[in-house]
């Protein structure tokens, strides 16, 4: 999809060069080769492909070619069912801002509404700043929700397994571990996005300092400060995720120790009666109690005591908690 954004007007699909007349922002959404070629003819610069935007070295993500600035970064995207990160690219020229993306982002939709609602003409630089501001605002909102989710996860971890709420402790443990892993993945993706945005803002400020208006310089500086504060917040979230992971693993280890303790008790109380039964089950002629009338009941009582007495001893030591 190829959209052209003009100030004071709604977005318009671009099929020919005439459709982009008066536009300041050209938005390519998962573009085809024909749409990339059309955008290149309109702005007079080459349009990078997806594999170019996925390069991780700084020289590929931030560079200048003649009259155009090329910047890119991975941007995290979260839906109700999935979490992914796709690259976005910006080609900044004197007259146009070209964006290349491969997913639908709410931040770009918000930026498009701001451009269409603007009454004064904006430059390509200002269009880029508007998009960066919307992306940072969206990431801040998402991080606030992540923080709330981590608080709930913390309560679930430390509340422990509830048999009335959960069917099996193993299922509860797997659910907790999946939630912790999902939170760490998301924090990592957001960290990469913030790092890329910070580099873009700094690079634009340094390489287009003469072209930027004073107001845009101040707005870019604000973007940098916001990104720095969000990065600190992500670091805090990452530390909390690691703490919750250690806590969850600790509780799982305690649960496993309790299980082993029960197995130890069961195996121990089974040894003594088995030994007694084995002794009196031997086929020797001179067993003292062989001809004793109470020998059978004696052996049964002895085996019962060998089970009951260890259970009482374990219970007094706290190994067995009746009623839990």
Automatic annotation (TrEMBL):
Cellular compartment(s): Cell membrane; Membrane
Swiss-Prot/TrEMBL catalytic activity: Mg(2+)(in) = Mg(2+)(out)
First-listed, main subcellular location of the protein, grouped into a coarse class: membrane
Membrane topology: Multi-pass membrane protein
InterPro entries, per the entry: CorA_cytoplasmic_dom, CorA_TM1_TM2, Mg/Co-transport_prot_CorA, MgTranspt_CorA/ZnTranspt_ZntB
Cited Pfam families: CorA
UniProt keyword annotation of Cell inner membrane present: yes
GO molecular function: cobalt ion binding; cobalt ion transmembrane transporter activity; magnesium ion binding; magnesium ion transmembrane transporter activity
NCBIfam families in the record: corA (TIGR00383)
Function statement: Mediates influx of magnesium ions. Alternates between open and closed states. Activated by low cytoplasmic Mg(2+) levels. Inactive when cytoplasmic Mg(2+) levels are high.
Family as reported in the entry's similarity comment: Belongs to the CorA metal ion transporter (MIT) (TC 1.A.35) family.
Name of protein: Magnesium transport protein CorA
